[in-house]
Design brief:
This protein is an all-alpha fold and about 110 residues long. It contains 4 helices and no strands. Helix content is about 75%, strand content about 0%.
């Protein structure tokens, strides 16, 4: 019985301190732990960033698909690329190329 009274006295003396320290340790673990609040917030931001990147890539993919479709079906688009980028011309046409330095000088000033 003397042991129980010593244990009861110890618990009543240090029980609240142990309880408060345990609660503080649990709170620290919940906030700063491996799966704590800060880590979950960081993971959520990473997920949002990746989803934004996926949306951007899906949009770019759709634009490229449209361009591929137009290159396969639109003869005017093919002709435009052949003329502008490859410098090709139809038979009996003459292409006159103006150097870029002269193109900039002859452009009328904008108001």
């Amino acid at each position: 019985m003397a042991t129980q009274s010593k244990l009861g006295a110890l618990w009543s003396q240090y029980g609240r301190i142990v309880l408060v320290l345990s609660v503080c340790a649990l709170l620290l673990h919940d906030v700063f732990g491996t799966h704590g609040y800060l880590d979950m917030r960081r993971t959520k931001r990473e997920i949002e960033r990746v989803q934004g990147e996926i949306r951007r890539l899906n949009k770019e993919n759709a634009e490229l698909s449209d361009e591929v479709k137009s290159l396969k079906t639109d003869p005017h688009k093919i002709e435009s690329i052949a003329r502008d980028e490859l410098g090709l011309a139809k038979p009996n046409e003459v292409i006159i190329k103006i150097p870029q330095s002269q193109q900039l000088q002859s452009a009328p000033p904008k108001r």
